[in-house]
Amino acid sequence: MKRGIFLLLVLAILIAFPFSAFSAELKFGLLPRLTEKEMRDGFTPLAQYLEKELGMKVDLIIPKDFDTWKKEAIEGKYDIAYTNPYLYVLVKNAVKDAEPLAIASEPESGRKFDGTIIVKKDSPIKSIADLKGKTIAATDPGSAGAYLVQMLMLQKAGIKKDDVKIIFEKKRDPVAEAVLAGKADAGFVRDDDVEKLKVGGDKFRRLGVSDPIPNWPIMTAKKLDPTLTSKIKAALLKLKPGDLKAISVLGPARIEGFVETSDKEYNVMREAAKAVGTF
Fold first, then answer.
1. Fewest CB atoms within 10 A around its CB: which of 3, 169, 224, 238?
2. CA–CA separation, 8 and 226 (whole Å)
């Protein structure tokens, strides 16, 4: 009899509180700057940290490429997202409720980073102006630090988009390999990635380095409950640069912490995008 009463009580609770209340999940979309394995290995500790802080499951979503990430972000497939500054402004332009929660600070570059143009060490190319008529390897047309800022550098050197041939290699290492193999005359990569290239950064020479641009933000990608948004932001900002907790949680993602930011900090990316006709 007592068992029957207990089962009735459980049933009553399930009716009063729909299953969805027990399966709250935060979808966290990661822009695939690196391979899926590298992204998942790097950000799983952060997902686990957020689960403890928020009391809900955090599901890492890593699409196959930048275009898919952008499409899914605009369609509302993610609750929060980690993205480059360029794609942040594009999503913000399409999704009015999108907002930056915090900006990543990295050990090498802090809260800002630069893009660079590389050539082989023995290349006859001596200046950015010499790239006219050449083939250039870049990661992705949605990359802030490995396409967009370099195209702005070309424009300032008097080179139009149609004056060069751009080939997209998706990731930084294939870009370097294309340059080394002679498939491309030059490559676009983040400046702080040169020393991380698998083929060896010492095989390349920098033609130029861009002006600094704001680092990657974690953003809301849709309208969220304000209380949840505040909790996520507070949890991220607890991971301060140099803090031991931040090192353990963010070290695998090569981030040293998160700091405050605002939408206006990304105006420089809007200007750069407009300058090259992509915004």
1. 3
2. 36
